[in-house]
Amino acid sequence: MPLGTLDRTPPPFFRQGPSALTKLVFFSALALFLMVADARFRVVGPLRAALGTVLLPLQSALAVPVEMWEGGGQYLQGLRSALQGEQQARQSLAALSEKATRAESLKLENERLRALLELRPAVTVRSQAAQVLYEAADPYSRKVFIDRGSSQGVALGSPVINEAGVLGQVTGLTPFSAEVTLVTDRDAVVPVINARTQQRSAAFGGAGGGANPGMELRFMAGNADVQTGDVLTTSGLDGIYPPGLPVARVASVDRQAEAGFARIALQPAALPDAVRHVLVLEPVAAQLPARPSGRAAGGAVGASVGGAGANPSGPPAKATGGAAKAPAGASR
């Protein structure tokens, strides 16, 4: 058989088609064309949306076992946390019940003792709720405005508190709003008493400066019995704040040997930046008896001293002299 008649083409099974380089160039050009067309004309978006719609049931079916596994783990973990929270809540409820029982017993005992000593009943403070409207525009002061004013019965000097403790005092009034100077203001001063030692002092605002000023105890001796963590409450001796309201907690005590006073930094009990609703109290002085004037008090003291120094059986001159000296001593 002549060699020229032989068919040297590969069989169909071994045919390679275009070369590998040709395929690489073709698919690279196609990919580049599709990217440019999608970025410029958004031609692939409908195709992608249709493909996602078709594959959504399959995707949801495949995700069911994973969701069941994760949901079961979260359910068991949540159940364990709920049981632990219930146990802690029961313990806290038992402790609070004990404290409430003890407080009720102390209240009854206090009432009996006050009745035994014929003391005046404790002052009841009237209050009304208010909402914080906005802060003062002055960056160098710590003041807020509330939506209660003189038409609602708010008076100058009224204490303002929240559930944590003392916030400040009303220092400005309009018919329908009031200005409240916070305890962290540099001009704020609150008479306080140390709940541990019963030592009275004054807490001043504006300590540290900056955007978030704190409070401090000033004019305290270097050897004063003040410790970190002491709770300071209102003393009630100023006629403004009712006694026993939380004011601050001692944050740090710096005792310097060369200084006569200690630097005592305080952490306010109520954080003014996180307050939205407050309670405005009536000043305690509004329910207390009026204080006697200085002249009337001096005359009363002089009369009592003169009467005590007079001798009815002696010469009248001595009684007159004793009565004459008493007012002079009272005036001093």
Task: Describe the fold and architecture.
The chain is of the alpha+beta class and 332 residues long. Among the domains are: 66 residues; 158 residues, Beta Barrel (Thrombin, subunit H), CATH 2.40.10. The chain is 38% helix and 21% strand. It is built from 4 helices and 12 strands, in the order H-H-E-E-E-E-E-E-E-E-E-E-E-E-H-H. The strands form 2 sheets. Strands 1-2-5-4-3-12 form a 6-stranded antiparallel β-barrel. Strand 6 and strand 7 form a beta hairpin. The relative contact order is 0.08. The C terminus is likely disordered.
Summarize the structure.
With 332 residues, the protein is an alpha+beta fold. It is built from four helices and twelve strands. Among the domains are: 31-96; 129-286, Thrombin, subunit H (Beta Barrel).
The count of strands amounts to 12
Overall mean confidence score, pLDDT: 80
Can you identify the CATH superfamily of the domain at 129-286? Rod shape-determining protein MreC, domain 1
CATH topological fold name of the domain at 129-286: Thrombin, subunit H
The major pleated sheet works out as:
6 strands, antiparallel, barrel
Low-confidence stretches: 297-332
> Class of the domain at 129-286 in CATH?
Mainly Beta
- Give helix % range: 25-40%
Secondary structure category: alpha+beta
**Count of separate DSSP helical elements:** 4
Shape: elongated
Radius of gyration equals 41 Å
Order of helices and strands: HHEEEEEEEEEEEEHH
Spatial separation of the terminal alpha carbons: 154 Å
